[in-house]
Design a protein that fits this description.
Elements lengths: L1 H12 L5 E5 L5 H9 L4 E4 L2 H10 L5 E4 L17 E5 L2 H13 L4 E7 L12 H9 L1 H4 L4 E8 L7 H21 L5 E8 L5 H6 L4 E4 L1 H4 L7
This protein binds pyridoxal-5'-phosphate.
Length: 224
């Protein structure tokens, strides 16, 4: 029951227009079922095969979000059911998703991952690279994907000022492009920012989707 209580507390504390993605990576099916029984319908996983196994085992009205870094050769295992892919940082990956989505006659929604952390290790595109990608004629040809927003991960730090700056920078970039960039396969409406440690700050900076794992399911045994 702890899981349901945690979710309810988070839902109560965030605005109604912010979507809570329950990040269930590494957690057993029984934990997801408990969250589901409490009403949670959006789950985030970071490994394609693990997500596909959970999809098979759980009710079919769950929305599955892929939040991890993608290996192109595995996209085919989720193309028939994934609802949103958060971590796109290459045109090549988008092309593969497009190809697999086409086989299932679907249009798969994706978020471009922006690099906002000052740390070196994080994946993602610079704002410049995002602009280039959205202008690329090869991108415009992709009819079975749709870019619906951006995703960002802030630095792993307690420095509130730095976190605030990182979230604010992505929000301004998002707001700028929201109005000027709409095309048939790009309509920006979602800003995915904020995890267990920083989602309140992310929401203050315009986040419309938070990805929360440990505050719901407890700490993970191994990090991933
Ligand atoms: C694991 C993960 C999260 C959730 O992290 P918590 O700190 O457990 O809330 C959010 N986003 C991404 C991309 C993740 O990999």
């Amino acid at each position: 029951m702890e899981i349901q209580k945690n979710i309810q507390e988070i839902i109560k504390s965030i605005p109604a227009n912010v979507t809570l993605v329950a990040v269930s990576k590494t957690k057993p099916i029984s934990d997801l079922q408990e969250a589901y029984d409490g009403g949670q319908r959006v789950f985030g996983e970071n490994k394609i095969q693990e997500m596909a196994e959970k999809f098979e085992a759980l009710p079919k009205d769950i929305q599955w979000h892929m939040i991890g870094h993608l290996q192109s050769n595995k996209v085919k295992y989720m193309a028939h059911f994934v609802n949103l892919i958060h971590g796109i940082d290459k045109l090549k990956t988008l092309k593969e998703i497009n190809k697999q989505a086409k086989k299932h006659n679907r249009i798969i929604s994706c978020l471009l991952q922006a690099k906002i952390a000052q740390e070196e290790t994080k994946f993602g595109l610079s704002f410049d690279e995002i602009e280039q990608l959205l202008k690329n004629p090869e991108f415009k040809e992709l009819e079975n994907i749709k870019i619906v927003g951006f995703m960002g991960m802030a630095s792993f730090t307690d420095d509130q000022k730095q976190l605030n700056e990182e979230f604010a920078s992505l929000n301004s970039f998002f707001q700028l492009h929201k109005t000027k960039t709409a095309t048939s396969n790009c309509q920006l409406e979602t800003l995915s920012m904020g995890m267990s440690g920083d989602y309140n700050l992310a929401i203050k900076n315009g986040s419309s989707m938070i990805r929360v794992g440990s505050s719901i399911f407890g700490n993970r045994n191994y990090s991933s």
